[in-house]
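How a chain folds remains the central question behind the approach discussed here. No coordinates are needed to read the tokens, only the vocabulary itself. For completeness, the protein is quoted in full, as a sequence line and a line of structure tokens:
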Amino acid sequence: MKKNRLSIALAITCALFAAPLYAGDNAQGFYIAPSFSYINYNNVYDLDDGAGGTIALGYQYDSPWAAELAILMAESQFKNATTSFDGEHYQLRLDGLYHFAQDKDIHPYVVAGLGHGLWEFDNDTENNDTQLNAGVGLMGMITEPLALRSDFRVIYDLSEGEVNNLFNIGISYFFGSSKKSTPAPVVFSDKDGDSVADNKDQCPGTPANVPVSSNGCPQDHDKDGIADYLDKCPSTATGTSVSSTGCPKDSDNDGIADAQDRCSATPAGAKVDESGCRIKLIEAIKISMQLNFKSGSADVLTEHYSEIAKAGEFMKQYPDSEVVIEGHSDSQGAAAFNKRLSQQRADSIREYLIKMYGIEATRISAKGFGESSPIADNGTAQGRAENRRVVAVIKGTVLR
């Protein structure tokens, strides 16, 4: 008879869990859980297996945890050597349940709790003990408010130190709502038109037609912090410090990136080598400027600016150089006048270079030679034109 009752209960459990179950969301909130209970007693108690029912009031939190207050009532039979007595077994307990994989149609759970047991027999005897229980179970939703459940527990009597087995099969009826509410339909919004929804777009103001990553931000293939559409150097090596254009930083603008520049404070416009250091001028350079002045005047004419630029740009390329501006004239007129006028014209060129090209005054000197150093025949108009000249003699200096 004992085995028949347990076999029937197990068969019912297998049949119910094998049937199609509700695939919706797990419920939460308060629930009531009636169940059939079967108890297998340890032989020390000299009790036949008992059968009865359990009623539990529980609460399923919006998490895997649930708590239950349960009352068990079962009938059994106490036997001694001479006779037997019918008896009733009562148990009041508080249990905690932890559910695994609640999104599955059928999911397992574990249970543990503390309670008090009482046995009353027809011979007016009784027994009571504090009990611990722990076990495993299965649960599956039948409909949205109704779930099938079954568990197997071990019951430990603290006073007697004995272990009994408890099997339950029943249902849970939920009074609360389902754990997951149906989300409201989401309207796709993409204000910047980059095909990434606004609620996922971390860069909502991306310009039109700019390629973006999955987060809606402009692509940056070389990971230098500058978006590809702004990056003028799209293949910068990883870890390189870059400017706002995405190119390696060149603080002194000498064409050599800071990472390779051994002379990081090169003056603007200076010629540098592959290490970013200034190239020294080794031999003197003469730059001849064919300049025409109004008769008796030392004022620089605008049409000669490009001629003067030859000397100005060259000196910027070699910031360690020094220059002598030489003024020369033809032989017409008094020699003293020609010398004075050539000096004035050389001074004009010097001042122009200082003002317009930012050349330090200490680097430029001016000297008038008058008619003393002709390069052509003063007896011809062509020769006199060639003699009226200004020459920049540029020499290299040692770095200080």
About this structure: Residues 335-357 form the longest helix (23 residues). The longest strand covers residues 84-99. The two ends are 113 Å apart (CA to CA). The domain at 285-396 is CATH 3.30.1330.60 (60s Ribosomal Protein L30; Chain: A;).
